[in-house]
Amino acid sequence: xxxxxxxxxxxxxxxxxxxxxxxxxxxxxxxxxxxxxxxxxxxxxxxxxxxxxxxxxxxxxxxxxxxxxxxxxxxxxxxxxxxxxxxxxxxxxxxxxxxxxxxxxxxxxxxxxxxxxxxxxxxxxxxxxxxxxxxxxxxxxxxxxxxxxxxxxxxxxxxxxxxxxxxxxx
Amino acid sequence: xxxxxxxxxxxxxxxxxxxxxxxxxxxxxxxxxxxxxxxxxxxxxxxxxxxxxxxxxxxxxxxxxxxxxxxxxxxxxxxxxxxxxxxxxxxxxxxxxxxxxxxxxxxxxxxxxxxxxxxxxxxxxxxxxxxxxxxxxxxxxxxxxxxxxxxxxxxxxxxxxxxxxxxxxxxxxxxxxxxxxxxxxxxxxxxxxxxxxxxxxxxxxxxxxxxxxxxxxxxxxxxxxxxxxxxxxxxxxxxxxxxxxxxxxxxxxxxxxxxxxxxxxxxxxxxxxxxxxxxxxxxxxxxxxxxxxxxxxxxxxxxxxxxxxxxxxxxxxxxxxxxxxxxxxxxxxxxxxxxxxxxxxxxxxxxxxxxxxxxxxxxxxxxxxxxx
Amino acid sequence: xxxxxxxxxxxxxxxxxxxxxxxxxxxxxxxxxxxxxxxxxxxxxxxxxxxxxxxxxxxxxxxxxxxxxxxxxxxxxxxxxxxxxxxxxxxxxxxxxxxxxxxxxxxxxxxxxxxxxxxxxxxxxxxxxxxxxxxxxxxxxxxxxxxxxxxxxxxxxxxxxxxxxxxxxxxxxxxxxxxxxxxxxxxxxxxxxxxxxxxxxxxxxxxxxxxxxxxxxxxxxxxxxxxxxxxxxxxxxxxxxxxxxxxxxxxxxxxxxxxxxxxxxxxxxxxxxxxxxxxxxxxxxxxxxxxxxxxxxxxxxxxxxxxxxxxxxxxxxxxxxxxxxxxxxxxxxxxxxxxxxxxxxxxxxxxxxxxxxxxxxxxxxxxxxxxxx
Amino acid sequence: xxxxxxxxxxxxxxxxxxxxxxxxxxxxxxxxxxxxxxxxxxxxxxxxxxxxxxxxxxxxxxxxxxxxxxxxxxxxxxxxxxxxxxxxxxxxxxxxxxxxxxxxxxxxxxxxxxxxxxxxxxxxxxxxxxxxxxxxxxxxxxxxxxxxxxxxxxxxxx
Lengths: 170, 372, 373, 158
Prior knowledge:
The complex is a heterotetramer. By secondary structure, chain B is of the alpha+beta class. Chain B has helices at 2-7, 53-57, 65-70, 77-92, 98-127, 131-151, 173-193, 199-205, 213-218, 224-227, 235-238, 259-283, 336-342, 344-348, 353-363, 367-371, and strands at 13-17, 29-35, 38-45, 160-161, 164-165, 303-311, 314-322, 328-334. Chain B has one domain: Cytochrome-c3 Hydrogenase, chain B. Chain B is built from 16 helices and eight strands. A three-stranded antiparallel beta sheet of chain B has the order 1-2-3. In chain B, strands 6-7-8 form a three-stranded antiparallel beta sheet. Helix content of chain C is 73%, strand content 0%. Chain C has a domain at 71-325. The relative contact order of chain C is 0.11. Chain A binds chain B through residues 1-2, 43-44, 46, 72-76, 78-81, 89, 91, 95, 98, 100, 102, 120-122, 124-125, 133, 146-150, 157-158, 160, 162, 164-165, and chain B through 46-47, 50, 52, 54-56, 58-59, 90, 214-215, 217-220, 231, 233, 238-239, 302-308, 315, 317, 319, 321, 323-324, 329-330, 332, 334, 338-339, 342-343, 346, 371-372.
């Protein structure tokens, strides 16, 4: 699990039977983003797309303005540390169409990723939080000051190698 | 003389509100830039209560994490336990018995009332009325005593288990809930009668802290804050979880998206919760509530789930990644208060200093959940 | 030059004694008020109030006072030391000075200023504002500064209707002498003659002592105590003292000017006065237990748009009454007319949000009904 | 204005109620009635048949405790040697740091011997910080108190 590379994920998505929602999602996105490598997986019951970080911003703009998915609300943003890379999950929700979709984006730790806080205001604090916990830089974000941690905190507590119990008790 | 006038230019004042301010609802800090009594800009600071619950849960076994969820939104413990249990149950691909689900719904809705009652009291305190807070605690205390007789604790219950409940409810559970309903209804009325349509309260909250529907969605507001702006979005209705599809209830919706509408939505929601409890207690099925897992170690297969539910404060989401061990690989909570609070900058601009506490109160944040 | 030393000396001694008596009377009164407020609010909120110290917690205020006096008096580093020290003294002295001329019966009064009583009350009452502003500024705290400025704005605004009510009473009675004013009320108390004056006086009195819903300058939930935020120990106790003395003074003046003072059947006059005063004070506590707080701009708008014009109207009414020598009920009619007109305006103004809410909800309901059909 | 008047009337009536029957109770005189299931501090139970604790020091509760507030050691049971007891091992030392304990009741759920219970004890206080570390005898004492008060019985063995 921890070291699963991207292509393995793709294989999984191609071999297993796809649910109708995911197929619909796939056809729409593949017809729009022709020269981008996209992989499609189900996150639990949510059709999701794994997108390279270069085209993340365009995809987000497309999904927000698209009439089928109309994802006006960024419901959740989560970073997951897979040791080699960090996967950032965007859960988008459309209030009008009542549908949820997910976007996954894998980022290496020494890379930057484009911000989506100009698309959804909600991303502002989420990105600061992920920056705190994983040290991912978001390009174009206005204020990357620590949100949950105090100024001057060293390390990134979200990462797997951050120690748990190294405090002393009275 | 001219020199003097140039020197005497007015500058904005920085006012630091919190973390020890009585009306910031916990350890929340705002840097207000004010011109006289008008707020020009605000910079919120959170994280004073950051306990790293998400990180801690990576080191805890699945059944221990329930205690951490109790302490996130410490005013809606049952609702938090429910969403976590649902997430793990989805991961294990199991379903609790119907009786379990009904009891869970009853307790969650009671907890929603308790949480909203506290809200009504605190918004009264923020607006300067002292009595509603004390009246609301009467009703809240009744509900908590009921909780104590069921789960053994007034706040940190740890009562929902993965796949079931910790133990069967007491024998007189149905009678207790039925007895408490009219009393709670009276308590709610008594509390909100002092506020909801009071003229001074209306003038303090109507058209204050307006957030339009588009902005509210953009900022990811959920729960009463979003419904106050006129959007009919409730997870219990849009994607019914547990057994909410069995019940007939309305989702109260505001119109203007101001503080008063958010208040009104909450007051109405309490009555809707009472309706749900009435139906649930009538339909309460027999059966077993013990978890089929027993005392076995919970070790779900690899996978990830995203589960959401409607908390008193809004939509709570749990993203759970399992790597097949007895501890989750990653647990991410989408806290409703966190998103609701992120709109504070927009809401406070060009309002009065006195309104800032009312607006903050109407968002009904719980810092334990914002910071986690 | 100086008259013979004998009577002068005697006069000084008697004044000193009466001042001491006044001081102890006020101190006891404040203690009783503190207890009464805590107990009344407690019972109103289904609580018990103080219970531990003495029977019914009667000794609680004394315990509080001892605690406050023994507590360390902290002066912030950044504070202007002199101003920080002087401010509470100004506030409490003005509160005490007010009482020099307020009579409790025709005979119990420190110095009944023959032709100056009401004027003196109006003049001395303003001094306290200075203390509040200084306290706010001197404590080098931004909350304190905001509170002090709010206090200045609020108190000065509400001083005008207060003084205008004094003026109209002086016009009607043709005297500034408080004893005389009370005596003139023996057949008809002025609340029946000048209902408008009573309402004006009571509302601006509430604002003057900063009682809910006008407790804006020390609003605990917004500016955390305003001018008093940095004070502790004895200094804070002094503020506390003056606040309650002022509340008592406003209640007493309400009784003296409008409720017929000490006149009443059967009981001795001082008992009647105290009964009436405590009734007014309980009313103040009752209001405090019910209403939320106004905002500063709403408060100022209320002062300058409603109270001040209304008080001028009252003065005009009184002048007409005196000039034409009309019977007393004519003034009542004029006063009630003014009260009614303004009452309707206020009602329209403050129920505007409620009506808007009702209207919008009605529209929404109709819309839903049409959609269902 | 009407609503304000309604509020005033309501507070007046509540004053009347408050004068007759206030909701608040004085604390030490009228303590809150504890419900049967109330979870106070954990305590260890005493097997009265054999006159020894139920606890064998098996460390299940310690491994399952979310806050790691307990420690325990086991020893050979002297009563097992003379065959008055079926327990091969018995608890030697047991310590619960009540400052860390979050009263979640997980230890009670996981215990295989019904050896630990959530007692009704909730008013423990001490004058120094280390006083909240409760040792075996203290735990057995509050557990025994709970046993006699509530008539607690170990769950019947299958």
